[in-house]
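chain below, 171 aa
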Amino acid sequence: MMKRIGITLILALMLAPGISLAEAKIGFVNIARLISESPQATAAMAALQEEFAPRQRELVAQRKAFEDRQAQVQRDLDVMGPEERRNAEVDLRKEERNLARTLEELNEDANLRRNEELGKLQRELLQEVAAYAQSAGYDLVVGEGVLYASQAVDITTEVLDRLRATAGATN
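prediction:
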């Protein structure tokens, strides 16, 4: 599959009007590196962390209250009557299920927001790659699915520099 894509790209360059394969300016961008090292990605992850921090703190407090209640019930088991013991155990199970449900909801919400932000970030990064490629006169820039790219064609650092400059200009 990858071989066919590479052949297709080479044929497309060979057939492009006015461009020979020897003249083509080809670059490679490591998208994973852009996502992990760009200031935009760092800012997006920090914003997500800040967005979900209150809910995480609340969940930690609820978990601590549950554990305290559980310890209290454990200490008082010997002095409880059978019905009181049963009620306490039922209440603890309900609290535990509520905690699990709250944690699951938090994780789902965080994953949805992370995916939204990642999609937005990827679009922004690809726009920056395209802008850099056009300004630097590249005929072809490839990314994912590349089995090998030499440093001579890797433009990831240059794109990261532009992203950092863009981030610095907006701060």
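The chain has five helices and two strands. The radius of gyration is 27 Å.
thats it, cya
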